[in-house]
Amino acid sequence: QVQLVESGGGLVQAGGSLRLSCAASGITFTVNPMAWYRQAPGKQRELVAGISSGGNTNYADSVKGRFTLSGDNAKNTVYLQMNSLKPEDTAVYYCAARRPWRGDYEYWGQGTQVTVSS
Fold first, then answer.
1. pLDDT exceeds cutoff 90 at 73
2. Which residues pair with 81 in a beta bridge?
3. Strand order of the sheet with strand 18-25?
4. CA-to-CA distance for 71 and 77, rounded, in angstroms?
5. Element (H, E) at 50
6. What is the pLDDT of residues 3-23, one digit of tens each?
7. At residue 41, what are phi and psi to the nearest 5 degrees?
């Protein structure tokens, strides 16, 4: 059974930092591509950052240079380091994973709220 458990969200002032964690069980990010998505109120869920099984990362233009996705093999955990946060980064952040041959993300965490105050 695949489980993704996010943590690390919270309230931060603009310009501040947060680090989100996604602990995975039932899969391993060195095999299964993983990603962070976010959904703000009234908006569609959007891809924030992704990491391939080979370790390549990609980022949404809106977070490039501010967010960094990384992984810890020993803990089977991926992280999203978020710096220089802006009020528009406020959203529920979700960790997602998929089997390598799938084009869509099929496993989702419960989400963690990030609120950035101005």
1. no
2. 19, 68
3. 3-7, 18-25, 77-82, 67-72
4. 6
5. strand 46-51
6. 999 999 999 999 999 999 999
7. -55, 130
Q: Extract the tokens encoding 86.
A: 């802006």
In degrees rounded to 5, what are phi and psi of residue 87?
Answer: -55, -35
CA dist 84 and 94 (Å) reads: 20
**Type of residue at 61:** D
Query: Helix, strand, or coil here: 23?
Result: strand
φ/ψ (deg, to 5) at 108: -135, 145
Helix (H, G, I), strand (E, B) or coil at 29: coil
Q: Please, what is the Cα angle at 82 between 96 and 73, to 5 degrees?
A: 50
Tokens 């950035």 -> residue: 116
Residue 23: exposure state from Cβ atoms within 10 A (0-12, 13-18, ≥19): middle
d(CA 114, CA 93): 7
Query: Under a CB-based contact definition with an 8 Å cutoff, are residues 85 and 93 in contact?
Result: no
The answer to whether 104 touches 96, Cβ cutoff 8 Å, is no
